[in-house]
Design brief:
Number of helices: 4
Oligomer: single chain
Strand content: 15-25%
Largest sheet: 7 strands, mixed
Helix content: 25-40%
Distance between the termini: 7 Å
Order of helices and strands: EEEHEEHEEHH
Amino acid sequence: MRISPSTSVLQPPQILFIAPIQWRDDKNISPELRRELEEFLREYFHQGLLSQNYFDMILTETKNIDLYRDMNLRLVTLEAAVTRIDKGIGLLRYFIGFGLGQSDLQVEGRLVENTTREEVMAFVMRYRHMGNAYNGWNPRALSGRYCLRMSMESVALTITGLIKDVWEKKGQLGMLRPLEISSMER
């Protein structure tokens, strides 16, 4: 995660718009699965932010940002793109395990101040899912769709947790300490 050095933009906004997910890598993914995963990732970003108890913030579910531009409130956009995706091989995942056949997902994104287009935070997260077969036989591990959905859930909840950590540190201290910034920027 990379954080803006300007502490004025690090405070939580009044409106957070979750932009539609972009795709930079969609090999071997059908258009139907792509649409499903896109909506699933946006929904988990939304649910992850809701679970952080931001009751005074408007978290949009609509894909139309024009509904919120004229409200005279601070608007920040969460932009995300899938930059690597691989369904893996279900038979290897299910019968052998040990990392063989795992699904692979990488999501890159950033929070952007809407009026100035200044970057508030940027992130990259990669997650590999092995089908959760270590607790016994899990027939869902055969499905690449299942593993990718589980990966997207983990990515979205981890990223929203990191965003919450930055906003909480900024709220408690009025600014972030240099060591906290460097630990988040790994």
